[in-house]
Amino acid sequence: MPLPSYTLGVMEASAYAPEVFARGLPSSPPEQQPEANGEPIGSVAGVASPLLSLQGIGLSFGGVVALADIDLSVRPGEIRTIIGPNGAGKSSLINVISGVYRPDRGHVQLDGVVYAQVPTQRLAQLGVARTFQNLALFKGLSVLDNVASGLAYKVRSNFAGQVLGIGRSRGEQRDSLSRAEQILEFLDLTAVRDRLAGTLPYGLQKRVELARALVAEPRLLLLDEPMAGMTAGEKSEMATFVRAARDRFATTVVLIEHDVGVVMGLSDRIAVLDYGRKIADATPDEVRNDQRVIDAYLGVASDNEDGAGI
Ligand SMILES: Nc1ncnc2c1ncn2[C@@H]1O[C@H](COP(=O)(O)OP(=O)(O)OP(=O)(O)O)[C@@H](O)[C@H]1O
């Protein structure tokens, strides 16, 4: 059964002319307002801006500089990959984008709204979904229920309604399950819909995580090492699904990856981190030939399980 064309509320990439991105943000900082944790500190009104942009992000843990003066801009509809050797700051960056960490310096602009710290508890309402480096599934629940749980934030029925299965809750539950079924079909997971998630092979569990994030129809999908620990075949399969998801739903994807080889054919643009600094930000071909990137990866080439180097 084909997926219905959801009203995703996404921004169509075609609605944004390239020159709009070239202009970037206004040179003057956004108007500052009293800052509260997780509250916007300003907005960039009247300017067609990237879906996501980071400006001057700095983050330290004690004496360890995890991120230093990172700028990053993500256009609607693109697959934006962040790579770097171990300890380069990739996970710290995705944790800043998703509001898990508050940066010491700089700010995050999401859909034109500027945050000192993205409100992580409102991430889903902001249209952002993420997966985690380490699997975060409900291992004792079925695949179908795991995927439907990605819509839990939308369920509006009260506790009594959910327990008694009455009123709006029954309809909401039916709707969640039906949308979960559609995403399972899209990601070729229907055959395992009733299996307990924890009993699936690792590669399939990672795909179930992708399904759970996708079912929320996110405008921005953050994938933290979605191919980590996979075989070469599973990685290439996952890359195909990520691209298909972007094409089908026009979801903007920010993807963190350690293995450079697998993201070359998948990414529109790649940012490279090394010791918390951004050392390159370009197309895959340009990154592949960038001497600073080659130098950063020298000595860790053996970590690349595909042995593909860069
Ligand atoms: N919670 C933390 N407490 C202390 N130091 C941390 C913490 N998180 C990250 N760091 C340090 O910050 C630096 C960047 O780590 P981060 O995990 O962001 O890198 P990474 O590129 O994701 O690495 P990997 O590929 O190994 O996952 C490292 O030196 C790391 O030890």
Describe the structure.
- Keywords: ATP-binding, Nucleotide-binding, Transport.
- InterPro entries: AAA+_ATPase, ABC_AA/LPS_Transport, ABC_transporter-like_ATP-bd, BCA_ABC_TP_C, P-loop_NTPase.
- The structure is a single chain.
- This protein has 310 residues and is an alpha/beta fold.
- It has a domain at 140-212.
- The chain is 30% helix and 21% strand.
- The protein contains 10 helices and 11 strands.
- The strands form 2 sheets. Strands 7-8-9-4-10-11 form a 6-stranded mixed beta sheet, sandwiched between helices.
- Residues 61, 64, 66, 84, 86-92, 258 line the site of adenosine-5'-triphosphate.
Summarize this structure briefly.
Keywords: ATP-binding, Nucleotide-binding, Transport. The protein is α/β, with parallel strands linked by helices. 30% of the residues lie in helices and 21% in strands.
Salient structural properties:
310 residues, alpha/beta, six-stranded mixed sheet, 10 helices, 11 strands, globular, disordered N terminus, binds adenosine-5'-triphosphate
Rounded mean pLDDT score:
80
How many whole angstroms does the radius of gyration measure? 20 Å
The largest beta-sheet arranges its strands as 7-8-9-4-10-11
Record field, number of beta strands: 11
Bound molecules: adenosine-5'-triphosphate
- State the distance separating the first and last CA atoms: 40 Å
Order of helices and strands: HEEEEHEEEHHHHEHEHEEHH
**Helical element count?**
10
Runs with pLDDT <50, length 5+?
A: 1-36, 301-309
Shape call: globular
Percent range for helical residues? 25-40%
GO molecular function: ATP binding; ATP hydrolysis activity
Protein name: Amino acid/amide ABC transporter ATP-binding protein 1 (HAAT family)
Keywords: ATP-binding, Nucleotide-binding, Transport
InterPro entries: AAA+_ATPase (IPR003593), ABC_AA/LPS_Transport (IPR051120), ABC_transporter-like_ATP-bd (IPR003439), BCA_ABC_TP_C (IPR032823), P-loop_NTPase (IPR027417)
